Amino acid sequence: MTTTMNTLVTEQQAAALVRFAEQYGRGWKDELHFQWMRSNYPLSPQEDRPLLQQVRNYLGGRWLLRTSLPKLREIAGGKQRART
Questions:
Q1: Residues near 4 by beta carbon (within 8 Å), at least 6 away in sequence
Q2: What's the rounded Cα separation, in Å, for the pair 45 and 30?
Q3: Residue 45 C-alpha from the chain's centroid
Q4: Which of 3, 5, 14, 61 could lock onto 75 through a cystine, CB 3.0 to 4.6 A?
Q5: What integer is the mean pLDDT of 42-50?
Q6: Residues 6+ away with beta carbon under 8 Å from 41
Q7: Is residue 48 within a helix (H) or strand (E), and if so which, with residue range?
Q8: Cβ neighbours for 76, distance < 8 A, ≥ 6 positions apart
Q9: Predicted TM-score (pTM) of this structure
């Protein structure tokens, strides 16, 4: 896992978050928070589920409120579209 200096989220975690956001659209943060509370990611790819849970466990809701999709895309680089 690679962590950039200006953030605590890894490239792989950022890519999973970008895929999640693209799947759920405008309300992605609310939906992610909802799924975090249940530790259940029914529509996410199996390999993204532990990454989403890691973000919850280590960064949490305050971090989610402060982050943005463009920043996550930047961190993820080309990895956000690695899986379809």
A1: 11, 75
A2: 19
A3: 12
A4: 14
A5: 95
A6: 20, 35, 48, 49, 52, 53
A7: none
A8: 11, 14, 15, 17, 18
A9: 0.83
